[in-house]
Specification:
Elements (H helix, E strand, L loop, with lengths): L1 H47 L5 H4 L12 H33 L3 H15 L2 H16 L4 H25 L3 H9 L4 H29 L3 H4 L27 H9 L4 H35 L1
Length: 295
């Protein structure tokens, strides 16, 4: 009887402890979700009122005049595209070395360590680095400098995802191809890459999502071009060797201004970036789900 009563008391105490832990966990989740939805609700409420045709067809205006964010949108797209085209091949090749050739070598361990540092490094440090090695050397801000800074943010994400996805490819596939006489590079290019393709694309999409809203690196590299244009081609610059408008910096400058029309455009630009990043993350999760089903 004593043993039975003791076991019942222990069971009751464990149930009560579990209930309290679950209650605290649910409370923390609700608290976090509340602020998340509050932020998103405020963004969508203020952002939708700023979304119109002009925001896509007119350039950043002077205070008190009509305008949009066309030059900032196109500038962001251009620098993001170049950064992705530069950073993705480097990241894939580095990830391939780590997963297929380096494995447990000393060099591979050093690369992984440096890559982990780059993954966690504040983006403003990357911006300062590019400012010192590039902007100060050429003597001016430019779209190329902004693209270079963003590419440094793309590389570590692609390296990590490429290595992880290639490590998930069964060794038996490589051994079967090698048994048929396929050279190592063909095994990697036609077997490992094909099996890990969706996961590697997911890593690229996540890297693009990360750099899409980065402001700090661009403040030190591409900066912005002049405000005050009323038409599509006024104050328009497609020269990558000159300061280039971009959405994050335009939002930063407009949000801090005392002008209501600029603040309205800042809300609209923030909504555009948020929706773009959300779409990229949904696409990345969809590809990740396909990869897991394939495995």
């Amino acid at each position: 009887m004593a043993a039975t009563s003791l076991s019942k008391s222990l069971y009751a105490r464990r149930r009560s402890t579990n209930f309290v832990a679950m209650l605290l966990a649910m409370g923390a989740a609700v608290f976090g979700l509340f602020w998340l939805f509050a932020i998103l609700g405020t963004l969508f409420w203020n952002g939708f009122s700023a979304i119109d045709l002009a925001i896509f067809t007119q350039n950043t205006p002077a205070p008190g005049s009509a305008g949009g964010l066309a030059n900032a949108i196109i500038g962001s797209l251009a620098m993001t595209l170049i950064a992705t085209l530069v950073g993705t091949p480097i990241g894939i090749m580095a990830g391939t070395y780590l997963a297929e050739y380096g494995k447990k070598s000393v060099l591979a361990s050093v690369i992984r360590f440096i890559n982990d540092i780059l993954l966690s490094a504040p983006s403003i440090i990357i911006g300062l680095f590019v400012y010192v090695i590039f902007v100060l050397q050429v003597g001016h801000f430019s779209g190329w400098a902004g693209s270079l800074a963003l590419s440094f943010l793309v590389i570590p994400v692609v390296v990590r995802t490429s290595e992880d996805m290639l490590n998930l490819v069964p060794t038996g596939l490589r051994e079967a191809a090698a048994a048929l006489g396929a050279p190592r590079w063909k095994v990697v290019a036609f077997i490992a890459y094909k099996a890990a393709r969706n996961g590697m694309i997911t890593g690229v999409l996540l890297a693009i999502a990360r750099i899409s809203g980065e402001t700090a690196p661009l403040l030190f590299t591409s900066l912005n071009n002049q405000f005050g244009g009323s038409g599509f081609f006024s104050f328009w610059s497609s020269d990558m060797n000159a300061p280039m408008a971009n959405l994050p910096v335009a939002i930063f400058q407009m949000a801090l201004s005392p002008y209501e029309d600029w603040q309205r455009l800042a809300w609209g630009g923030s909504l555009l970036i948020t929706v773009a990043i959300l779409a990229l993350n949904i696409a990345a999760r969809g590809l990740a789900a396909l990869t897991s089903k394939g495995n």
